[in-house]
Specification:
- With 103 residues, this protein is mainly alpha-helical.
- 84% of the residues lie in helices and 0% in strands.
């Protein structure tokens, strides 16, 4: 990795850390978390993930699957199935916060 790439990476890390700090200081992190929770409930993402969990347990058997395996499967499935509209809305809110706070 050359020095220019390293400097760019450092700059991005600094901005990311500053954004995270501002989100915490203003309480916006909690508001965004609640917004995300509500959107995922509204689009049935949570219910679909719960149904998927039950189906995996039925197929594999409760005695043949570990909590770690189930958690890993749910994590992958959960990330892959978040609707694009929800991701776009959340990103838009983050950008707006970023701009308003001149980060």
């Amino acid at each position: 990795m050359n020095q220019q790439s390293r400097l760019a990476g450092d700059f991005i890390n600094q901005r990311t850390n500053l954004l995270a700090q501002k989100l915490r200081e203003t309480g916006e992190d909690s508001r965004l978390e609640e917004y995300l929770r509500q959107k995922l409930i509204e689009c049935r993402w949570r219910d679909d993930l719960k149904d998927y969990c039950k189906e995996v347990i039925r197929q594999k058997g409760l005695e043949k699957i570990t909590i770690e395996e189930l958690t890993d499967m749910l994590y992958v499935r959960g990330q892959a199935t978040i609707p694009n509209k929800v991701k776009e809305d959340l990103l838009s809110r983050l950008r707006q916060f970023f701009d308003e706070n001149q980060i």
